[in-house]
Amino acid sequence: MERLKIKSLLENSAGIQLGSEITVKGWVRAFRSNRFVQINDGSCLASLQAVVDFEKFDDALLKRITTAACVSLSGTLIASHGAGQAVELQVTSIELIGDAHPDDIQKTVMQPKRHSLEFLREQAHLRFRTNTFGAVFRIRHAVSFAIHKFFNDRGFFNLHTPIITGSDAEGAGEMFHVSTLDPKNPPLNEDGTINYKEDFFGKQVNLTVSGQLEAELAALALGQVYTFGPTFRAENSNTSRHLAEFWMIEPEVAFNDLQDNMDLTEAFLKYLCSYVMENCKEDLTFLSERDAQDQQQKPQQERAEMSLIERMKFVIENPFKRLTYTEAIEVLLNSNHYKKKKFNYPVEWGIDLQSEHERYLVEKEFKCPVILTDYPAKIKAFYMRMNDDGKTVAAMDVLFPGIGEIVGGSQREERYEMLHQKCVEFGIDPEELSWYMETRKFGTAPHAGFGLGFERMIMFVTGMTNIRDVIPFPRTPQNAAF
Ligand code: 4AD
Ligand code: MG
Question: Do 146 and 56 reside in the same domain of the chain?
C-alpha cells in the first residue's frame, strides 16, 4: 500500500475518507498501555495516534515497538475517540523496519522527556528526532524557501559565488586557509616564508567570508542578484550568536542608494516573518509556548516582554526606527544607563558599537528593530561609499531585539579614484583586487546591497537563543564533532 504522510492525513490534504485502508511509516514516539502508538514521520510536528489491538499481535513483536523504533503501520483510518486529533489509525498490520533498544535509548535525547539544549547539542545527530528540533528545521526550510521566493518574485537572479577565493572581502583577516601543501614540509621561499606558488592554485586562498564582491560584478550587469551560500569566519568568538560556518544571503542592486537599500531590507525581513506566521503555524505555536516556558525560568529583568508570536507580529506591523550612528551615540551618551555607568565598554564617537550598546538601543530605548546608518569610515569595510562629510560612510546595520546585528550592508563606493584611495588607506593591494576595481572603469553605477545572517534570522523566528540550535551541525571554536 502506498505510504501516506502524517501531515497530509491530519490536514486531510490527501482527501482520504474515513474507513480507507492506509499505510504510514515513521518512528515511535510513545507506546502506551500496549495499545496506543504515537508515530511521527517528521512531515509535521504532530504524531498520529495508532490503536493496536494487542490480542491480535504476537507478544514478541509488540515488545519491539519501543520509543524510537521505526515501523510501518497499516490499517483503517477511523474517527478519533480521544481529544486532540480528528482521526486515528486502527492497526491491522505492523512491520518493524528498525529496532531501537531501550537500554541504548536511556542514554540518548530520544528518551521521551524534556532535555536541556546543551545535552541535545552533544547528540546533534539524534536531536532531529525531538519536537523542538523538528520544528526548528522545518521552519529553517520554510525561511530558505521564502528567501528564494521573495527575490524571485521581484526579478532578482540567484548567483552562486565561489567558496574558495583569494580575496578577503570584509578585510577582517579572519579566514580559513585552503591548501594542499604538506604542512610538515611546505616549499619555502628564500626568506623562509611558504612558497604558495607551488600550492594548488599557485597562490594563497581561503574559504569565503562573503560573496559580496563577486555579487557586485554581477549586479552591474544583471541589475539585481542575490547570493545564498555558506560563509566562513575564523573569528575566535565563542558567543551564542557566532558560528565559524554560517549561511548568508547577500542581495546586490544596481542603481539603489542607501535609502532604497534600507527599504529593501525592511520589506525583506517583514516578508520572512509573515511567511513563517502564515506557513508554519503548528511549529511556531509549539516554539512560542516553549519560549514562554523558558522566559518563566529567567529572572524578571531578562524576560522578553512579548511572546515569540507577538515579537514577530511587532516586526511585521511596525516601521523600523532609522537613525544615524552619530545620533545613536548621542542617545547612548544621554541615557541614564550611561550616566549610571552601566555600560562595560566606553561610549564615544568613533567606537565600534558593542553588543551591549546595540541591545540598549533596540530593547530599552526604541523597543523596536533599529537601522543605524552612516558609520565612521574607519570602523567599516573599505568598499562602503564615502559620504560628503569625508568622515562617515553610507553603511547600515539592522539591529533586532534579542539578536543584535542581523543585517549589515551599505551603498558601495562606485567612484574608481575614491575606491583606489580607500584600498591604499586600508592596506589592500589594488592590483590584487583589479578584477573588482575594473567594474568602476566600465560603466560604473551607484549600487547597494546587504548581508542577512541566515541563522540569526532563524533564531529570531524560532525564539531559540543559541545560534548552535538553529543549524543542523554547528561549527564553533573547538567544535566540529558531527
Ligand atoms: O556585517 P557582515 O560582516 O557583512 C558582510 O559580510 C557584507 N559583505 C554584507 C553585504 O553587504 N553584502 O555580515 C552580515 C551578517 C551579519 O549582520 C550577521 O547577521 C551575519 O552576517 N554574521 C554572522 N552570523 C553568524 N556567525 C558569524 N560569525 C557571523 N558574522 C556575520
Ligand atoms: Mg557587520
Answer: no
